[in-house]
UniProtKB/TrEMBL annotation, chain A:
<feature type="domain" description="Rieske">
    <location>
        <begin position="278"/>
        <end position="344"/>
    </location>
</feature>
<keyword id="KW-1015">Disulfide bond</keyword>
<keyword id="KW-0472">Membrane</keyword>
<keyword id="KW-0812">Transmembrane</keyword>
<protein>
    <recommendedName>
        <fullName>Cytochrome bc1 complex Rieske iron-sulfur subunit</fullName>
    </recommendedName>
</protein>
<comment type="function">
    <text>Iron-sulfur subunit of the cytochrome bc1 complex, an essential component of the respiratory electron transport chain required for ATP synthesis. The bc1 complex catalyzes the oxidation of menaquinol and the reduction of cytochrome c in the respiratory chain. The bc1 complex operates through a Q-cycle mechanism that couples electron transfer to generation of the proton gradient that drives ATP synthesis.</text>
</comment>
<feature type="transmembrane region" description="Helical">
    <location>
        <begin position="61"/>
        <end position="84"/>
    </location>
</feature>
<feature type="transmembrane region" description="Helical">
    <location>
        <begin position="96"/>
        <end position="118"/>
    </location>
</feature>
<keyword id="KW-1133">Transmembrane helix</keyword>
Automatic annotation (TrEMBL), chain B:
<feature type="transmembrane region" description="Helical">
    <location>
        <begin position="113"/>
        <end position="132"/>
    </location>
</feature>
<feature type="transmembrane region" description="Helical">
    <location>
        <begin position="335"/>
        <end position="356"/>
    </location>
</feature>
<feature type="compositionally biased region" description="Basic and acidic residues">
    <location>
        <begin position="525"/>
        <end position="541"/>
    </location>
</feature>
<feature type="transmembrane region" description="Helical">
    <location>
        <begin position="415"/>
        <end position="433"/>
    </location>
</feature>
<feature type="transmembrane region" description="Helical">
    <location>
        <begin position="41"/>
        <end position="67"/>
    </location>
</feature>
<feature type="region of interest" description="Disordered">
    <location>
        <begin position="517"/>
        <end position="541"/>
    </location>
</feature>
<dbReference type="InterPro" id="IPR027387">
    <property type="entry name" value="Cytb/b6-like_sf"/>
</dbReference>
<keyword id="KW-0812">Transmembrane</keyword>
<dbReference type="Pfam" id="PF13631">
    <property type="entry name" value="Cytochrom_B_N_2"/>
</dbReference>
Length: 361, 541
């Protein structure tokens, strides 16, 4: 067992002549380390060369590398020949990704643990001490660098010729703005174009009232929604049922008689007395908090819950927020039934739909 | 003509000479080969982040070959039958294709997602290690700031990538993000409209997120990570105190070969674990969520874990709306505080902490030695407070799931979170502080009286007392004179080499010679002579 343990060498020793043929390779390594202010204070073989332990470790590492080869080959076999195309049901293709992961993982872990074992168990252990040298630069160097930089300023002569400095700043500031302008100018987009933040798909077009339609585009008769039931409805316009009108989805609710009475009273308190049609009320589905669809309607309590942040709105009280982070009630859509017997919106929403923002009136 | 002999053995030497003639590498290379690194398991946490980032780059490049960053409406016609004929964005359709119609695409997608989660987790745990051990102190404040920026840039990388598949779940996340931008006072609507190119969702956001996710943010991450590593290299790693270790040296191993080998092996292990996770554990099965439709959402819509604390803070925020009655009236919605102000405060607090602490302690010296968390109770307790705050928020981000699984009222969960957010952190501060003091005291006790041996002695007068093994010669009354040096105090007899380690070996016992208490830098005590392996008799031939 070769164990070299030595004490800290005194500073300022003579450098070794590395061309001396009597020096071993390790001597030269030690000398090199010393020149980088490193003292190898402890260096110890972990396994006796030729020992049983060494042979066992070598076999272990080799086995891990061979396992890697095996797993990598298995990966390729699976990748090429295993059926991978999706089929409904419980086909073999469901095993494709797990098998790839398993074989790739084992292959990589094999190399990983092989190298780790090699490094940790077979290589000599050492303790080296290196000087940190993290103090400040020498006072002299600081002085020299500082003076050099100040001299640069002197050479430029900005202090003597102040006009240069002023004109440079005055000239460069607009250049900086030029760099930023195309980016900002290109991106900027007026949020109030076409009054888009305050209108939805239900705004009457050419004086014609917009129908409420289902997801498949069919209009809705009152009889289509059973008592206590609710239906997500959309404006009956082109692209009305799409993300192009992300603010328009509305919940049409058929309230029970007693709840409808409560609702009507609450409505008239805020001047929405004629917003309901019979026992039917329509509220925006877009939560006034962060814009998720508030879609979980609890029939018994008439509460509408938004699953994103759990704001709860009491439908029988103008969809007032009763719990959670939302601070504003859901806007109500005034509805009626047209001469053909289908639901239409009397007008657009009279309040702003969707999450709150600064200039919302 | 005489042919010159070609000396194969001299080729490497000659080539190396040639390289050095041209580039003068011998000296810098020697310095690199020789550089000493201290070693401790906790120093590996940051490397998990680094290695997952490498996996992210590799798998991410693969994904870009097949992903189409467009919101053009297409009708899905791929292999996944349940969605065939559904109109959806090209982005979602191509994400489905990666999952079903690209050979090996699903495992790449899942590995990408898992390594992103691992990246963020490793950053957080690494940050905790740096904080609790005081590794952020002078001269490393800059690297601490870069590190905390890396968390937030990683957060943006994660969120932008999460949004790209444009499925039902991520679209809802994007909707909330637009709500958050809208909530910013004065400029909110302009910011949102400019980023989304009009009203939500517009038709451009996916392409913009794509270029941010594959170019801008990774570029920033690469730059920050390079600076981070460069500074670690330049300033040299911190080390734990111990024999031979001072503020002015680094005690450890030279970079090559052992340290580098261990790093390489560890990278492969991290890579392998990600591969296993990517193959075996399903993540983000976008085909179940369907395309994003503004009117569809389901309960238990949780974001990735590192976003959950913001989700939680949003859920806990009371509905406090500030109205400013000027003109038509202006509003600061409640959404603004937990999602814009809170992260701002967190960034400020974390980046400023090193300077605040230095000012508080009037300590402006260089610190290259780490501190055990117990030795700085105030800092450890502040850290515990931050962790408690974060955990309450993260749990609240899943409070609907918790309420559902444990049959608790959802409103009760929200109130528990609100109250917990105020009470738990101070409690964590107090408890941590007391634990630190207790641990300190026990260290001093052992240094003064010795290690508990577990041997009970009966005195002539009938009393019982435990025999203590003093750690030093002492003053004759069983009291040692050892000073606490900021490192582990042995508290069990086998840490003193008195007892052999537990029997090792899987099929047959292997008895190993006792090792001295491990403390690199301290020459070990003379090892016991090698002994033959002792078999258990009949179990071996």
């Amino acid at each position: 067992m070769s164990t070299q343990t030595e004490q800290h060498a005194p500073q300022g020793r003579e450098p070794l002549d590395v061309h001396d043929p009597r020096l071993s390779r390790f001597d030269i390594v030690t000398e090199g380390a010393r020149r980088d202010d490193i003292e190898i204070v402890h260096y110890e073989e972990q396994v006796v060369p030729g020992s049983k332990a060494e042979r066992r470790l070598t076999r272990t590492v080799a086995a891990m590398f061979l396992l890697t080869g095996l797993a990598a080959t298995a990966f390729l076999v699976v990748y090429i020949w295993w059926p991978w195309e999706y089929e409904p049901g419980r086909g073999g293709d469901k095993w494709y990704t797990p098998l790839l992961g398993l074989t790739l993982g084992v292959a990589l872990l094999g190399i990983g643990f092989g190298i780790l074992t090699w490094g940790k168990k077979l290589l000599p252990k050492e303790v080296s001490i290196q000087d940190r040298h993290d103090g400040p630069g020498s006072a002299e160097d600081r002085k020299i660098t500082g003076e050099t930089m100040l001299y640069l300023a002197d050479e430029m002569g900005v202090r003597r010729r102040p006009l240069l400095g002023v004109s440079l700043v005055a000239g460069l500031l607009p250049v900086g703005a030029v760099a930023a302008a195309p980016l900002v100018g290109g991106l900027i987009s007026n949020p109030h174009k076409n009054n888009q933040m305050f209108t939805t798909g239900f705004a009457p077009a050419d004086g014609k009232k917009i129908r409420l339609v289902r997801e498949d585009g069919r209009p809705i008769r009152p009889a289509d929604v059973s008592t206590g039931g609710q239906l997500t409805v959309f404006p009956g316009i082109e692209h009305g049922v799409s993300n192009k009108h992300a603010d328009s989805p509305t919940l049409l609710i058929h309230l029970r008689e007693s709840d409808a009475e409560k609702s009507r009273q609450a409505n008239s308190r805020v001047g929405h007395g004629d917003y309901m049609w019979g026992n039917y009320a329509a509220y925006s589905k877009i939560c006034t908090h962060a814009g998720c669809p508030a879609s979980l309607y609890e029939q018994q309590t008439n509460r509408l819950l938004c699953p994103c942040h759990q704001s709860q709105f009491l439908i029988t009280d103008n969809a007032r927020p009763v719990f959670g982070p939302a601070s504003r009630r859901l806007p109500q859509l005034p509805i009626e039934v047209d001469e053909e017997g289908f639901f239409v919106a009397k007008s657009d929403y009279t309040e702003t739909v969707g999450p709150d923002f600064w200039e919302r009136p | 003509m005489k042919r010159r002999k070609f000396d194969v053995a001299a080729v490497p030497g000659k080539a190396a000479g040639g390289v050095d003639d041209r580039f003068q590498v011998a000296t810098p290379l020697r310095k690199l080969l020789n550089k000493v690194f201290p070693d401790h398991w906790s120093f590996l946490l940051g490397e998990i982040a680094l290695f997952s980032f490498v996996v992210l780059l590799l798998t991410g490049v693969f994904l870009t070959f097949f992903y189409e960053p467009a919101m053009t409406e297409v009708v899905y016609n791929g292999s996944y039958a349940p969605l065939r004929g559904t109109p959806m964005s090209a982005a979602y359709a191509s994400s489905l294709d990666i999952s079903f119609d690209v050979r090996g695409g699903l495992i790449m997608r899942q590995m990408h997602h898992w390594s992103a989660l691992l990246f963020m987790a490793a950053i957080v745990v690494h940050m905790m290690r740096v904080f609790f051990t005081g590794a952020f102190r002078k001269p490393r404040e800059t690297n601490w700031i870069i590190g905390s920026l890396l968390f937030w840039v990683g957060f943006l990388a994660g969120f932008s990538g999460y949004s790209l598949p444009d499925d039902g779940l991520s679209g809802t996340g994007l909707r909330i993000a637009s709500g958050i931008m809208l909530s910013i006072p004065v400029v909110g609507s302009w910011v949102t409209s400019s980023i989304f190119g009009g009203e939500f969702p517009g038709e451009i956001i996916i392409s913009r997120f794509f270029i941010a996710h594959v170019l801008l943010i990774p570029g920033l991450l690469v730059a920050l990570i390079s600076a981070h590593l460069g500074l670690v290299f330049k300033q040299k790693h911190t080390q734990w105190p111990g024999p031979g270790r001072t503020n002015d040296n680094v005690v450890g191993e030279r970079m090559f070969p052992r340290y580098a080998l261990k790093q390489g092996g560890f990278f492969m292990v991290v890579f392998g674990v990600i591969a296993l996770m990517g193959g075996l554990f399903q993540i983000n099965p976008i085909w179940y969520f369907g395309p994003y439709e503004a009117w569809v959402v389901s309960a238990a819509s949780q974001p990735d874990w590192y976003v959950m604390f913001l989700d939680g803070s949003t859920r806990l925020m009371p509905a406090w709306e500030i109205n400013i009655p000027i003109g038509n009236g202006y509003v600061i919605p409640p959404l603004f505080w937990p999602t814009v102000v809170l992260p701002g405060i967190l960034v400020g607090l974390s980046t400023l902490y090193p300077f605040v602490e230095a000012r508080q302690l009037k300590d402006y010296r260089h610190h290259n030695l780490l501190q055990r968390p117990r030795d700085v109770p105030a800092r450890t307790a502040v850290g515990a407070m931050a962790v408690a705050f974060y955990i309450v928020l993260t749990l609240s981000g899943a409070n609907d799931v918790i309420a559902d699984k444990f049959h608790i009222s959802l409103n009760a969960m929200t109130w528990a979170g609100r109250i917990g957010l105020l009470i738990v952190p101070p409690l964590a501060y107090y408890v941590t502080y007391r634990i630190c003091l207790g641990l300190q005291q026990h260290d001093r006790e052992v240094l003064a009286h010795g290690v508990e041996t577990g041997i009970i002695r009966r005195l002539p007068d009938g009393r019982f007392e435990e025999v203590h093994q003093p750690l030093s010669a002492g003053d004759g009354h069983g009291h040692g004179e050892l000073d606490y040096v900021g490192w582990v105090v042995p508290k069990k007899m086998n840490r003193l080499g008195a007892l052999g380690p537990a029997i090792r070996g899987f099929f047959y016992p292997i008895e190993k010679p006792v090792e001295a208490p491990v403390s690199p830098g301290h020459p070990p005590v003379e090892p016991r002579p090698e002994r033959e392996e002792i078999g258990s008799g009949d179990s071996r031939r």
